Amino acid sequence: MGTGVVEGAGGHLVQDRMEQAGMRWTKAGAQAVLDLRAVRINGHWDAYGQWHRPQHHQRVYGTSTPVPEVVEAQGLELAA
């Protein structure tokens, strides 16, 4: 792979988003944004969302997210 390809990818991934007018970034904040851009650009957004939602729920509420199939089954039992 040539350096031009690497520099082009760097410009597309980093520079286009991080160097807009008036932006200031901490290292942690910049890394978080770059990680999300890489996930989106690589086409893994849906898989990341499926992983992230239960992680976020655990972090915020301290309990694991109910499995959607279990919730649906409970709803069907209540409806019967």
Average of pLDDT: 78
Shape, please? elongated
Q: Which regions have little confidence, pLDDT < 50, spanning 5+ residues?
A: none
Number of strands: 0
If helices are DSSP runs of H or I spanning 4 or more residues, what is the number of helices? Answer: 4
- Describe the largest sheet: none
Q: Compute the CA-based radius of gyration.
A: 19 Å
Helix content: over 70%
Beta content comes to: under 5%
| Oligomeric state | single chain
Q: How would you classify the helix and strand content by structural class?
A: mainly alpha
Q: What is the total number of structural domains?
A: 1
Termini separation comes to: 61 Å
Q: What is the H/E order?
A: HHHH
Task: Looking at this protein, list some descriptive labels.
80 residues
Write up what this structure looks like.
By secondary structure, the chain is mostly helical. It has one domain. It has four helices and no strands. It has helices at residues 3-18, 27-41, 45-61, 68-79. The radius of gyration is 19 Å and the shape is elongated. The chain starts with a helix and ends with a helix.
